[in-house]
Amino acid sequence: MKKVALSIVLAAGLATYSAMAADMATKAPPAPPPPPSPWDVAITAALMTDYNFRGITQSNHNPSTQAGFELRYTQSPQWQYYAGISGESISFPNRAAAEIDLYAGVRPTFDKLALDFGVWEYWYPGGTCYGNTIQAGCLPTLVNGNVAKKNASFYEIYGKATYTFNDQWAAGIQEWYSPSVANTGSVGWYTVGNVTYTTPSSWWGSSGLGMYISGDLGYWSLGKSDAFYGDGALFGFPGISAATAAAGDPYKSYWNWDAGFGLTYKAFTLDLRYYDSNLTKGDCNAFTSSQSGGGSNNITAANPGGTGSNWCGAAYIAKLSFATNLSSIK
Question: Is residue 15 part of a domain?
Fold first, then answer.
């Protein structure tokens, strides 16, 4: 009798376990995580000892700051659309308050080849006109005789291509075009190539550190300015006729280059870099209308007054930058 009772208890227990197991098997599996959003925002900020653009200081060799945001929509691994805004502190001849960059474009990617096409607006609000007193509201020339329009804003359209050979080596080329560089009337075609070497991550272990070495070589093909920047005869420069002055200054096309290395840690980068160009002080002064230029012996076809500027010479610049995505800090 005891054996029969024991058998009944065991059978009941097995039946209960089987029922529980059956109930467990019928429960719905946990829901998969939602797919990542195609929208993201890139955030950047930087401190630099000098703001250099294509071999020319934009901050009169003084420190500069930068901050920016870029909205991104990644349609697929091959296609990303973006629009951004960035601001930099500058020191321009027309006393513009800042440089505000507004840009938008598309980035197609095909395996190791990354492309980028877009348009970029350089906006310089708060400027003052110096030099052409015929225009209403335009003040006399700067102390060194240079002139500057109130509005130096302009735009460029661009195309970029970068090929990543492996985890260490990448090379690229870019082309930029503007119908009126810095609103001077001069057409500009800027071509630049670059090479980057990134050290293997195994060098640094799990420290989060990294390092790269890179260099750029560019050529800016420039045309003639408009009459505003060709009015040298109006200010008594010898040997320059009014007709020649009115035709505009023939800006000197030039080469520029930079080379340096960067140390990275998570979202931070410390970049140490050398910049230079082959512009003489006279041609640099003609192109930039530098408010800090001086002298009278730097006479060129575009610079009959002889004032010279050091804005285009050698510069050694340190830059500490921060870059992350909003999706990374949620």
Answer: no
What pLDDT shows up at residue 209? 96
pLDDT at 233: 43
Confidence of residue 3 (pLDDT cuts 50, 70, 90): very low
* Residue 148 DSSP code: B
Cα–Cα distance between 212 and 165 in angstroms, integer? 15
CA distance 173 to 190: 11
pLDDT tens, residue by residue, 90-100: 999 999 999 99
Q: Which domain holds residue 101?
A: 37-328
CA distance 139 to 116: 42
Alpha-carbon span 236 to 305, nearest angstrom: 9
Is 22 contained in some domain? no
Tokens of 98: 């800042």
**Which residues are within 8 A (CB) of 253 and not within 5 positions of it... i.e. 6 or more apart?**
219, 220, 221, 222
* Distance from C-alpha of 106 to C-alpha of 159, rounded to nearest angstrom: 10
Per the domain annotation, does 307 fall within a domain? yes
Q: State mean pLDDT over 280-302.
A: 94
Closest CA to 277 of 244, 306, 314: 314
- Residue of 329 and 80 predicted with greater confidence: 80
Residue with tokens 């006393």: 95
Say how many domains are in the chain.
Answer: 1
Whole-model pTM: value is: 0.87
CA-based torsion, 93, 178, 308, 60: positive or negative = positive
- Please state, as a whole number, how many other Cβ atoms lie within 10 Å of the Cβ of residue 234: 17
CA dihedral 55, 57, 63, 69 (to 10 degrees): -70
Return d(Cα 327, Cα 36) in angstroms, integer: 9
User: Is the residue at 16 inside a domain?
Assistant: no
Neighbours of 93 (CB within 10 A): 23
CATH number at residue 110: 2.40.160.40
CB 48 within 8 A of CB 63: yes
Let me know if 326 is exposed, middle or buried by CB neighbors in 10 A (0-12, 13-18, 19+): middle
Query: Cα–chain-centroid distance for residue 278?
Result: 22
